[in-house]
User: Fold this.
Amino acid sequence: MNASAELLKELRIDRKAPPPAPQRRWLWIVLAVIVLLALAGGAWFFLGRARPVEVRTAPVVSMDSAGAGASVLDATGYVVARRIATVSAQITGRVEEVMIEEGQRVEQGQVLARLDPISADAERSLSQSQLASAQSQVNNVQAQLTRAEAEAGRLDALVAQQLVSRSQYDQQVADRDALRAQLETARRNVQVARDQLRISGIGRDYTVVRAPFAGIVTAKSAQPGEIVSPLSAGGGFTRTGIGTIVDMDSLEVEVDVGEAYIGRVQPKMPVQATLNAYPDWKIPAEVIAIIPAADRGKATVKVRIALKLKDPRIVPDMGVRVSFLEKEPPTQAQQPKGVRVPNAAITERDGKPVAFAVSDDNTVRQRAIQPGIALAQDRQVLSGLSAGETVVLDPTPELKEGTRVIEAGSEAK
Assistant:
């Protein structure tokens, strides 16, 4: 009984015991607030930040110092080389070695290829043998002449003593003179053999193909083992050249101008050339000559234009657009003012002309500008922009100060 009573007492609730400690819920609340703030910050960074606007841009360039005015005529043409050569051997032979590749620069006289010299070496050996034979003939005739002259001298003394007949002496003198003539002929044969040896040496040099001038290799036409010939042999099995070399310093532009407008073009007239491959690059140029012949089929006249700028980006057969510019009267020490930008870069804000320049942080800055004269597809800007800056082309009305931009076709950073 006592044991059961003790067990019942243990099961009784002690209402005088202190209550358990409360849980620390504030720790969880703080952690939740921190997570919510982090999520809000990330959302603002990725969603609230303004996306960059895709735009097209163009560089601001300085005015051309050619003293040119507005365009009076536009035309299209191609870049051509005045000095271009397809190099070939002067003889027919098998290619033994080719030492050029496309794009390689070569100097004047540099060896481009070698032909098999077996035929040239055989001809040279033959010429050397012929020279040695002719020299031996000279020595033989010289020995006979020496003996004949001695015999003629002896008979001359005997004739004076009337010991031999006069006819015998005359015969000996004739033989001596004949040997003298033979010796002269033999000596001439030696000279002919020497000339033939020299010619065979030139033939040996013909097996080496050299560059006629300094330039760039634009085509490699032959490979080792092929037969090359300066004349076409037909059938497509014989090459007529080793490669093509272009003197890049001789590049110029040729355009066809309609007969109705050729009167606007004058020699030494300033020209602005634009390559199709680099539409934002304006190249200063000048008219060289107007070819005095017309194309009856196209009713055009060819005009040659010199490029005043040498650049490796300019290569033959590139398409080019040219603008013939008015030539202003020259003034003393007058320099062109301002810069030039494409017409598409100029717009209006509040009735005033402005342009949007792209800063280093890819944001635009609105610039109030003072436009000048029109220059074909460009415009002179007297103030507000500096050479070397980049401007936005065809700015939209939404574009404003501080807008982030990105070049069309590139990825935003």
Summary: The domain at 53-64+336-407 is CATH 2.40.420.20 (conserved putative lor/sdh protein from methanococcus maripaludis s2 fold).
